[in-house]
Amino acid sequence: MFSCFHDTYNKENVKNSQDVKWYDLLIQCKSINPSDKIPKVPENIVDEFFLAIASHRSFEIFIVVVICSNAITMALDYDSSTELYVSTLDKFEYTFLLIFTLEAIIKMAAFGFCYYFSVSSNNLDFLIVVLGVAEITAGLIIETSTSVLKTLQLIRIFRIFRVFR
User: Fold this and answer.
1) Which one of 77, 79, 121, 159 has the minimum C-beta count within 10 Å?
2) pLDDT tens digits for range 104-132
3) What is the pTM for the complete model shown?
4) Which of the four pLDDT bands, split at 50, 70 and 90, describes residue 1?
5) Domains and CATH numbers, the chain
């Protein structure tokens, strides 16, 4: 349709101002090249439910608060801490990991896998969840806290940058 209009008319042939605006709009539409993937369209009530949660502002604020709390909890860890203190911090870490895992699942269900992984901050979030699960699994198998696991834990600090975007 556009090519017929474009071939027949050019800006000089269009006389009134509304036709000029229409012509300019068509030229702009021709130059648009969609680069973003669109989230999946909700197909049922469950999809709508997850989309409503994932796109709600309160959900995002909650996740930011959890990210900040996780950073504070990680900062509270020190070498000569008591067993009870370490156990309490570990329980907080498990809770944070559970929340981050649920966030990833909710977003994947709401937006679809392709769209979820097309957003770079989601890739970091997913990597952090996978590393967190690996850290807990390795901690259960080895039953000691190694420096490698602590280094992996530091990657979670990068999630705090999400607050500033």
Assistant:
1) 79
2) 999 999 998 888 998 888 898 898 888 88
3) 0.68
4) very low
5) 2-31 (no CATH), 45-164 (1.20.120.350)
Rounded distance between C-alpha atoms, residue 133 and residue 95, angstroms: 12
DSSP assignment string, the chain: -HHHHHHH--TTT--SHHHHHHHHHHHHHHH----SPPPPPP-SHHHHHHHHHHT-HHHHHHHHHHHHHHHHHHHT--TT--HHHHHHHHHHHHHHHHHHHHHHHHHHHHH-HHHHHHSHHHHHHHHHHHHHHHHHHHHHHH-S--HHHHHHHHGGGGGGGGGG-
pLDDT at 9: 55
- pLDDT of 62 reads 95
Residue 10: both structure tokens together: 């050019």
